[in-house]
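Hey, can you fold this one?
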Amino acid sequence: MFGVETEFCRYDGFFLSMLATNIIIVAINWKRYHLCIYSLHIWIVVDYTTVFLFRLLMFVDNGRAAGMGL
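Sure. Predicted structure:
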C-alpha cells in the first residue's frame, strides 16, 4: 500500500498562500464589487475559503491516519 504523506511540502504552502492572498485581495476590493449585478464577490470568497478549509482538513485527516497506523 501507499504511505500516508503528512509533511507539509512547499507546493502545499504555495497553494494555501495563493488562496489566502486571493481572499485578502477580494476583501480589500470588496466595495468595488457593489456595481456587479451578481454577487460575484461573495461566491469568490466562499469558494476560496471552502477550498482552503478542505485542504487544511486533509492535512489533519492524514496526520490522524498516520498516527493510527492506517
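The chain has two helices and no strands. Let me know if you want another pass with a different chain boundary.
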